Amino acid sequence: MTETRSLRRWIAVVGSGVILAFAASSAYDAWRLHQQVTQSTGRELSNLARALSEEAERSLQAVDLLLTDTAIWYRDKGARQTGADIENALRMRASATPQVSVLTITDADGRQRYRSRQTGEPLADVSDRPYFETQRDSRVAGLFINPPIVTRSERRAALVVSRRLETPSGAFAGVVTAIVTLDELREVYNAIDLGAGSALILTFDDGRLVVRQPPDPRADGQVFSDLTSQQASAPRIARSPVDGREKFIVSLPVSDRPLMMSVTKDAHEAMAPWRAEMVGLALRTLALVAVGLLTMSLMLRQLLRVERGEQALRRSEQRYALAMEAANEGHAEWNLQENSFFASERWLRLHGAAPSARPMEARALFLSLDLHPDDRPVVTDSLHEHLAGRTPELDIEYRVRLSGGGTRPADERRDSASGAKREVGNEAANETLSDTLDDGEDDTVWRWLHLRGRCLSDAAGRPTRFSCAAMDITPRKDAEAERERLQAQLRTAQHMESLGTLAGGIAHDFNNILGAILGHGEMAQRRAGTANADLARHLDRIMQAGARARLLVRRILDFSRSGVHDRSLVNVDQAVEEALQLVTPTLPADVELHTALRGGNAGLLGDVLQMQQLVSNLCSNAVGAMPGGGRLGLSVDVLVRAQPVLLSHGTLPPGRYAEVRVSDTGTGIAPDVYGRMFDPFFSTKAVGEGTGLGLSVVHSIVADMGGAIDVRTEPGRGSSFALWFPVAGEAPRALRSNDAEAPPRGDGQTLLIVDDEAPLREFAEELLAELGYEPVGFPSAEAALVAFERAPQRFDAVLTDETMPGMSGVELAKRLLARRPGLPVLVMSGYGGEELEARVAASGARELVRKPLSAAELAQAVSRVLGASAVSAETSGSPGVTAR
Description:
about 25% strand
């Protein structure tokens, strides 16, 4: 530091210190004197207000004692005395309390009966006065102080203090009142010397004025709500509503009475001594400060130029520091000639190094950086290329490990095959894979950095200095990864949707063909009997193949989500148990089954047959993955997820879920199969051993029920399929009957049959005729509508296909019901879904059934709609729609 700067600082410090010390001393003296005056004024006002409040309370106690004693005397004795005796007694009692002007007894009707003295005014009716109404209406009013009024007894402004009179039985007998005139109050308070600028104000607790001393006409009729809203013994300063001047105010309640005693003093008058003292103190302080400043300015004038130069330099340094901070980048510089390295704190933090431990040697710093193993060679090669002059600048992206470890939470793991997260807590439901799928996983979290730099070289081309800047691009990389994941999900969803649409269309057309085969095959079986064994055997084979084809169509429709489902609340444990009854007999002897059904009464909104199909397909695949035998696990658990959970095939929002898990100890799923296992018609089995629809149907059904799938696998160790479904409510186990019932028969009812497929129409007509109905078939909706309009009352029910050329079945149902409300209508379709169910319900049809129909199913459907029609006719209720 130069001599000039040292001298300048010494002058500024010493001179400023002296001036500040004197100014501080003067300020302290002024503050102390102000506090003394303020405290003195406060003590004076507080003591005066407390004394006046206590005096007012003593006066009120005396009046209350007078009224209480008079009320008791009048109840026990006075009411039975003569008027002269009563007035004489009142006169004697009032004389003992000088602040009471008149003591009056009023009867229960509000008429004044007796006074303690003659006032020159007649006895008045006071039934309209607030004090009379209050005492009459309340037995617990006690001492009531009426706001100032002009009394009818003396025609003077006064306070009326009253108590209730009662008969010995407790009934209202009137009021005893004591009148305290405001003039007498003013005379009492006028004897108190309040001092210049002071005032005494007695108000009610709502701010209404009782008396002010000294009087001020401007205060009459005002409400001083600010006095009653801030009750405190310590003084406060507020502006007076009377004269608009600042006042010291102390407000105290008069004991528990509805009165407030306030004492005020003009702030200007109270602070007059302090202002007089401040004038002399300010003059002395200003004179000394002026002398000190003049001396300092003369001494510093010659040193000002040097000081300005130093200040300009400091401002330049500050601007540079702010610019570096605003760039949000870490900067570093490598001196290659000295092999030294300087890095900013931001640069070190980005690379996971502590700012307090900056390595000065470049090679040691580079080795200390925890770069990703895949990125270290890239960074090294790029840096060497740039230092060799083969690239104009260095521009690379690489990863570094987060400081402090930076690993994922312990309750999340990533499957080595699928890359999907699942919670460790779910392993309790998977006894087979409890310890086999979590080994060898690296959960380190890396930070992505973008580094740009340039090297400076000397005249000979040798690198001398390298400068660089690094910034965190992890959010951008995460966004790119998320975008890629979402795009992959979108492509998968579009692929599955297109395949589902194609499969659904094919299944719908095949349904009509299959319906004719099964229907007429069943009719042929019934008529062939046992006379021709070969014919019966051939028909049995036809029906068996048709049943397999029907199941295949059902799987295709489930995959395309176009089937007709009877959705209800299904007990998950019971559905799984029923599926196991079908699966257990088919298990090989070398497969060991382990079950743990812990779902309780948890209910899912779905189809029982679909739940059974899910379990059957997954168990079949698990058995196929264990050609040499093994362990098949099946469990049901109910779990609550408080946070969203990312699964291998879907995401679970927070909620309560039922988890159905099927696991095996088989060969596992190969990586090339994992990505395609849910594709329709994709199968790893030999030709003729599978349809390739098992897992695709599982995926479709789970998605349709609002669930998600989590697949975990390891080649050679086994696989686990966890199906997660939202719990829709409580569903106790239902008791199911196994008794087979004969197809219900008709009683000559006429049925209108509409189907554009002649074989299906003929099958329905022939079957219904055998069951006792009178069927009438039509190949189109238009022809059926014409026949119906000719004789609307002829038909007892209508059976119509949905998909037909021209008018659809739903449209036909609307027109028929418009002509004849309440007509039972049954819609048949093999290609449905929620949209079709909604349209059928809106049309007014009774039921929607799945094609193809067997003879028993058709007979039961017709019986149901006719039975529902009978019940509806009896109860006059509107029919609903049922999907089956």
